[in-house]
Structure to design on (81 residues):
């Protein structure tokens, strides 16, 4: 908001109006996408993917991942890999 020269609430309303999602929802989808790319590599553990994608903890990562992808990270890895 500071870089855009807008009040944070004004930016949030503008973002939602033009994208249909909240700023945090958008950021979480980007992080889950990064985690998915990491999970494709069998050398990365789920905890590694969570950390490298920017999630502070595994529990939060699992909750957000399930909300975005519809399954747990491990189930997603098994289904895709």
């Amino acid at each position: 908001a500071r870089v855009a020269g807008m009040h944070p609430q004004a930016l949030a309303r503008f973002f939602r109006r033009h994208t249909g999602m909240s700023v945090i929802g958008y950021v979480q989808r980007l992080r889950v996408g990064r985690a998915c790319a990491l999970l494709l590599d069998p050398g990365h553990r789920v905890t590694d993917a969570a950390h490298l994608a920017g999630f502070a903890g595994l529990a939060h990562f699992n909750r957000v991942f399930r909300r975005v992808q519809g399954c747990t990270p491990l189930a997603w890895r098994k289904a895709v890999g």
Summary: The radius of gyration is 15 Å. The mean pLDDT is 96. The chain is about 70% helix and 0% strand.
